[in-house]
Each structure stands twice: as C-alpha cells, then as structure tokens.
Amino acid sequence: MNIRIRSYSLDRIFTIKSLAALLIAFMLAPLILTFHAILQHRYSQSVIEDHIYARQGYRITGQQQSVKLEFRIDPAYIPKKQGDVFELHKLIYNRNHTKIYLETVAWYNPPQNSDNIYIELKFDPTYLYSKGSFVTDAIFNEDHSFSNVLFMPDYYADNRIKLPINDGNSRSSVFIPARQLAGLEGGLTLKFEGFNLVKYERE
C-alpha cells in the first residue's frame, strides 16, 4: 500500500497565514472603526467639556475663586509700535489638570479707538471622564448657566513698584492703553487673583 504525504513549503504556509490575518483584519475593521467612533463621541475632550458646562451627566461639586496667577513679560516682547505682534505660547501655569499659556502680546489699534497693548491668555484644561478639576474664568450658577469672571490684574515694573494702570478689563485677555506703558523700562509683571478652581464628577 502506498501512502502519499503532501508537503507544504514554509513560504506557502506563511502566505496562507498572512492571507488569513489580512482577512481577519478586513472583517474586524468596521467593528474597530465603530468602536473608536463611540469612544470619541463619549470620551472626547470637547464632548466632556460640553457636558460639564451644560450639566448633562455631570455635576459641579465645588468651585473656589482662589487661583492666583503671576507672570512676567520680558521687555523684548512688549510692543513698542503698531504692528508689533508676539505669538509666545509660553506656559505660565500647570496645575489642577490645566495648562495656561501666555499666548499673544500685540499692539492693538481698532478703528476709531486709541492704541492698546493686547495680552491674551489661553486656557488648556484636560477633562477626565469620571471626575476631576480645572481652572477657568467662568463661574457656574445654580440655574445651570455660567458667567465669566471680570476683573483686572495688578501690574508691576521690574523694581516691584505697582503701576497705576487703571483701564482695560477682563479675564483671559487684557487691554492696556499704550500711553500707560510709555516710559516703562524693563519687563512687566501681571498678577491675577480669582480664577475659578472647579471640581466636577459624573452623576
């Protein structure tokens, strides 16, 4: 009796395995993409932020206008004339799941208005799915609305003398009349008090 044994080369075996792996990957791809879309919809930063602010599935467990922020602007980045714009993106705060950047310092001249030095901060919080905290310029009200904190920083020259700047406003951006910085030597330090530390958790 003759027994014939079919043999396969290693190359053929590897080719079969590769084709099987590709077939499995092709079959799983729609499932993986769907799962990824669901995770993005549920866990993305923008979605979590929207839900926290709207109080949809989240509640505010505490807030304190207690965060102080102090930073210095180097004299090289204080605009001296119209058209001066410095995009700095300098990290000046990194706590409570929040990064704050000194984003822009520019000479601002809107139509029919006086010249201003414009200073913009950028808040970059990281929202956690279950619970966490972040720093903001917003106050969360009991009626599920929110409003922004409006206050001015204090300004200091490098000799630590407080500058009598009494104009401008704001929270994450400040306008200083350029004339009030005329003659400033050295850098400019800003001191904010009262940014809101918010704590939240899922309901």
What can you see in these coordinates?
- It is a single chain.
- The protein is α+β, with helices and mostly antiparallel strands.
- The protein contains 2 helices and 10 strands; from the N terminus they run H-H-E-E-E-E-E-E-E-E-E-E.
- The protein has helices at 10-43, 45-54; strands at residues 58-73, 85-95, 98-108, 116-125, 131-136, 138-140, 146-148, 154-157, 173-177, 188-202.
- The strands form 3 sheets. Strands 1, 5, 8 and 10 form a 4-stranded antiparallel beta sheet that branches. Strands 2-3-4-9 form a 4-stranded antiparallel beta sheet, with no helix packed on it. Strands 6-7 form a two-stranded antiparallel ribbon.
- Strand 2 and strand 3 (98-108) form a beta hairpin.
- Helix 1 runs parallel beside helix 2 (45-54).
- The model is unreliable at 32-41 (pLDDT under 50).
Strand content: 35-45%
What gyration radius follows from the Cα positions, in whole Å? 28 Å
Tally of helical runs: 2
Oligomeric state of shown chains: single chain
What best-fitting shape do the alpha-carbon axes yield?
Answer: extended
Helix content: 10-25%
**Average of per-residue pLDDT values:** 84
